[in-house]
Amino acid sequence: MAADFATSRNIVRDALALLRDEGLVDRVPGAGTFVVSDKAVQGLDRLRGLAETFETGSDRVVNRVLLAEVVPATPIVAERLELEPATPVVALERIRYLDGAPLSLDASYLTADVGAPLLDLDLTGCDVFGLLEAELGLPLGSAAVSIEAVAADPTVAELLEVRPGSPLLFLERLTYTDSGRPIDLEYVRYRGDRFSLSGRLHRIPVTPNRGVTEPNERG
After folding, report:
1. DSSP state of 120
2. DSSP-assigned letters across all residues of 6-31
3. Contact, 60 vs 118, CB < 8 A?
4. Helix (H, G, I), strand (E, B) or coil at 118
5. Are 154 and 137 in contact, with CB atoms under 8 Å apart?
6. Alpha helices per DSSP H over 138-190
7. Strand pairing of 40-43 and 195-198?
8. Which residue(s) pair with 40 in the sheet?
9. Cβ-based neighbour number of residue 59 at 10 Å
10. How far apart are CA 92 and CA 23, in angstroms?
11. Which of 88-97 are b and which e, b meaning 16 or more Cβ less than 10 Å from the residue's Cβ?
């Protein structure tokens, strides 16, 4: 590569190190440098759990449960779930594996009446959304989502098996029932080298002198 690009070996090493930090290549000692495989893609066109997205007739998605217990709601969690501070909520923390490799670290906070029955169900092999609808008969409606880029701190990096400082997609999702009640606040950290989000955006017609007609967030 140094010869092909008429540069020094140190410059090539630095360039490969930058590509590795961006999750585009992987350097294996004694073997070489390899392009990272295609990313898993989850659409933003509808509200789906991870296993629903990648369901192919096999158990591609498996969860390792790190935490599943009732805790007092922090002020932020209580505010988002429209509860009083310190109200009991169910906290779930899971590492989610896709095809045997860690994909994301999920932290979920559910209202106690909804979350408590989940503690007796299969949290390792099932999506929370699927359990809420199939096992508890609770229809979901919509979710408010925000996404940003963050760097993996040492603790998260160890859990997701990446280098500290590696790029992650950080997703915050507040899910509502079909009646508009917030029940599930999630903070999800996806490995940037293994995952991407996609969607199709439609332009909303602008009514002259009246501005843009906005859709109902919970509808």
Report:
1. G
2. T--HHHHHHHHHHHHHTTSEEEETTT
3. no
4. helix
5. no
6. 154-160
7. parallel
8. 195
9. 11
10. 28
11. ebbbbbbbbb
Query: Left, alpha or beta for 183 (phi > 0: left; psi -120 to 50: alpha)?
Result: alpha
The Cα–Cα gap between 19 and 129 comes to 36
| Ranges 72-81, 120-129, 194-203: which has the least confidence | 194-203
Quote the tokens at residue 71: 């805790």
Q: Where is pLDDT greater, at 89 or 135?
A: 89
| SS3 of residue 39 by DSSP | coil
Can you tell me the distance from the alpha carbon of 126 to that of 107, in angstroms, rounded to the nearest whole number?
Answer: 15
Measured in degrees and rounded to the nearest 5, phi and psi for residue 5 equal -105, 10
Average pLDDT over residues 89-114: 94
Q: Give the integer Cα–Cα distance in Å for 23 and 40.
A: 13
Report how far residue 129's alpha carbon sits from residue 174's, in angstroms, rounded to the nearest whole number: 12
Q: Radius of gyration over alpha carbons of the chain, in Å?
A: 21
Question: Which of 186 and 214 is assigned the larger pLDDT?
Answer: 186
Q: What are phi and psi of 160, to 5 degrees?
A: -95, 0
